[in-house]
Amino acid sequence: MNALLARFGRKSKQTKNDESYYTAGQMALIKARFKRKTSGVVAAWILGTMVLMGFFASFFSPVDPTIRGADAEYRRGAPQMIYFWDDNGFSLRTFSYTYKKVNAKIDPKALAGGGLDALDAFIASGALSSSSQNKFEVDKTNRRYVRFFVKGWDYSLVDLSVGSLDLDFRWDRHLSGVERGQIHLMGTDEDGKDVFSRTLHAVWVTISIAIVALIVKQFVSLFVGGVSGYFGGRVDTIMMSITEAVRVIPPIPIYLACAVALAHIDLTPVQRYFAIAVVIGALDFATLGRRLRTHILTERNQDYVLAAKLCGSSTRRIIWRHLIPSFTSYIIVDTLINFPYVILAETSLSFLGLGLTEPVNSLGVLLQKAQDPDIQQNMVWQFFPVLVFVFLIMAFVFVGDALRDTADPYSEKN
Amino acid sequence: MTVGINLLEIRDLTIDFHTDEGLVRAVDNLSLNIRPAEVMGLVGESGSGKTSLGKAMLGAAPISSGGVQYYNTEKKVTFGVGKPVKRKRLARTTQLVFQDPYSSLNPRMTARDIIAEPLEAMRLTKSREETDQKVIEVAKRCHIEVEHLRRFPYAFSGGQRQRISIARALVCKPKFIVADESVAALDVSIQAEILNLLKEPKEEPGLTILFISHDLSVIANLCDWVCVMRHGELVEQGSVRQIFLNPQQAYTQKLISSIALLDVKKNRPRRSPEWPCMALYGRAIGFCRAM
Predict the structure, then answer these.
(1) Is the confidence metric ipTM above 0.85 for this complex?
(2) Does A306 touch chain B (CB under 8 A)?
(3) Does the pTM exceed 0.90?
(4) Overall domain count for chain A
(5) Cα(B250)–Cα(B228) distance, rounded to whole angstroms?
(6) Interchain proximity A23–B96, CB inside 8 Å
């Protein structure tokens, strides 16, 4: 038993007598300390899974999320459950039932001649209520079994094409599917598009936009912070004045202006949004830029920088070997902590109708959709993206938080 | 190669710092010669300009007049007013051992990388193997275990860190080392260890050390020649024996008598076995007297 535990149980904690503790590099120490934070580790696993599922969304989703894959027979449909057993017996393979739309019966003849009584009866039947459209008849005798690695629509698994080099890996297999028709694990919207598949695709669109915005932001802040921190003096004063000026411009009018300016250029909605993301990133350098500047200002007056200078190191060597490594961990943490904010910016823009709009799958679009009273009343399953969004943000926040605590391993005394 | 009797000559050196209160003159029109292969002590109360003078010799202080000239170096090293420092040439000749062993080592580099810094920065070695070999050689001399070279500074104690600092200064075989209060931040038992280490290079011909300290017992223990500074000026210089036993200037006499006072105070709680630091202090002072 002990041998088994030793093999599969938790690895014993590194002790300080261990030579590896002393020789561990920065990344190894961050990893070791991160592993001690359970909330961070759990959040990291959740985050990793979500990002992976988002990246390979087409593989993981059972239904094409675009209008091509919309299920005309199952519009406004509730989530379809999957079962292992029912009254008809047990099955090792999971299955779903066949659903059939119930059309409200309207008898114009009776209505025309029946007077008020007929009208009352008609209203009482619920045919006019908003939820009457999502009534489906479940045919329990007609099972549809879930299948794995089913053949579905053709999609691009990873597209590495650069210029004329064609490296677009395409596939047509999907993790799961169902025989005869489609399975809608989280129901469908009013067009019959699968909510689950849309959400999976939306996660990656949102994250990729956030990545673009953050990379642009890092570059601009590194440049601004680095230049004004290293040179100091007048350069610093001018740079910081510009930074302050940029900081006081409210973001929403800028986004509006961008949206209007980009409307004249022929771009797909996602490309347009990427352009806005670049602008968001480029104008969001103020906080990080200032912090980097302060960091460099304090760091360059440290004794070890003077020591390096007296050892004959060139300015370039001092910057690359001594100054930059001292804030890489900081940048990593800052990026991770800022991820939720950029995603929130995306969602709030979509929410205001400035960012992405309906046919595109992004979390912002789906969240904006969930505002609709029709959805709130009759299609609660369309709140699934909200749930995913909350989990995603929480995962980012927890991982960022744990990383922030572990990022500077050398601050630990003895 | 410029040859002279002195290793380095300082001529009419003045160092001013611009502060909010106005100009502060740290070193005032000071001239000094340092002979090769000598351990020179620089003493004085705090604020007397010792550190500024030491930094000026390393080209790290703002010189407002005068200059510094090194002799006996492969290439001519001169700097002063209107003559900026040729950093790489100077670094080849002169190295500094810092006061604070905690802030003077980059926390993100291994001991090996820290010690190899001068070699790599000035490209003194041809290959990584040669660098490693030199680093191991100097580490052995400074009593750093070779296995510990892969460690990061946080894994070392203050004394061990200071040894790394000394190893870094010695690795490129400089002619001149400035040790600026190099033992002041350490506790007394470790001070002795570091002092012994600094004494060792004394046997190596050609190495000159400038030892800056306010601790006279340390100076007496280590140096051949002593300079006394006050308010940025040189008060007196002479051999250790001369300064400690027969001080000429009133200020030096006061300074020397202050250790005598300390001597009495320190000797009072004489419980040597439990108080190794006191015992060491007593020994240092005994050493002074014996001379």
Answers:
(1) no
(2) yes
(3) no
(4) 2
(5) 12
(6) no
Are the C-beta atoms of residues B213 and B184 closer than 8 Å to each other?
yes
CA distance to A189, A192, B4, per residue, from A137 (Å): 18, 16, 107
Domain that holds residue A206: 201-408
CA distance A181 to A188: 14
Tell me the chain A residues in contact with residue B58 when contact means C-beta distances shorter than 8 Å. 310
Q: Which tokens belong to A183?
A: 């399975």
The count of other CB atoms within 10 Å of the CB of residue A192 is: 19
Give the pLDDT band (50/70/90) at residue A3.
Answer: low
CATH number at residue A393: 1.10.3720.10
The mean pLDDT value for A117-133 works out to 74
B184 close to A (CB below 8 A): no
DSSP A358: T
How confident is the model at residue B37, as a pLDDT?
A: 78
Q: What is the pLDDT of residues A216-263, one digit of tens each?
A: 888 888 888 888 887 778 888 998 898 888 888 887 788 778 777 877
Instruction: Read off the DSSP letter of residue A133.
Output: G
Q: Would you say B130 and B189 are in contact if contact means Cβ atoms under 8 Å apart? A: no
Which residues of chain B, if any, have pLDDT below 70? 1-4, 72-75, 201-205, 259-291
Chain A residues within 8 A of B165 when measuring between CB atoms? 307
Nearest by CB to residue A312, choosing from B110, B118, B147, is: B118
> By the CB < 8 Å criterion, does B231 face chain A?
no
What six digits make up the tokens of A354?
């400035």
For residue B153, which residues of chain A lie inside 8 Å, CB to CB? 410
Residue A167 forms part of a structural domain: yes
Q: Which of B51, B75, B106 to probe by mutation at the A interface, max A CB count within 10 Å?
A: B106
Sequence-separated (6 or more) residues with CB below 8 Å from residue A121: A114
Tokens found for residue B277: 């630091």
DSSP label of B49: S
Residue B88: closest C-alpha in chain A: A312
- Determine contact: A23 vs chain B, CB below 8 A: yes
Residues A259 and A323 placed together within one structural domain of the fold: yes
**List of domains in chain B:** 8-240 (3.40.50.300)
What are the tokens at A74?
């199952």
Residues 140-169 of B with CB under 8 A from A: 147-148, 150-155, 165, 168
- Does residue A71 fall inside a structural domain? no
